[in-house]
Amino acid sequence: YLPDLTVNEAEYQGLLLGFGLLSTLDRGRRIICGDSNLVIRQMRGEIECKAPGLTPLRRRALDRLKTWPAHEFLHVKRDWDQSTDRLANAALHQQEGTTVTSEADHDDLVVLNRLQELLFQKDEGSVARMAAAARSRTRSKNSAEVLQLDV
Known about the structure:
The chain has a two-stranded parallel sheet. It has one domain (7-123): Ribonuclease H-like superfamily/Ribonuclease H (Nucleotidyltransferase, domain 5). The chain has 151 residues and is an alpha+beta fold. The protein is built from six helices and four strands. It is globular. Residues 5-91 form the RNase H type-1 domain. Pfam families: RVT_3.
């Protein structure tokens, strides 16, 4: 918890903190998820970073990314990662960092985190195949045209 940060500065600080936690792991592919559309799009290079408070934070984050050449950024809406929102709100309410100590709280956070639904490919068995038949009001001599659509 850092009281003098803007929301976007806090998002970048969280990103840098996450990079610090990953620093001891192998340098494989990374998918970085975040609910800040601004930060994700700036890190992807889709929009400029003009705010004086954000520019050095973005530069630091880009420098850290050089150690993970295989990476991508995924913007997720907050309802897909409610566990993060829950921790952030607790930290803001207490005006200090929050540590999860009980197993029940940990289990709640795992249940609220739905990111795996976005990140893991579903098996082929879960793909729905649909067919639709279309014909005009008056019957023609030709059989109905069938459209195939993979969903």
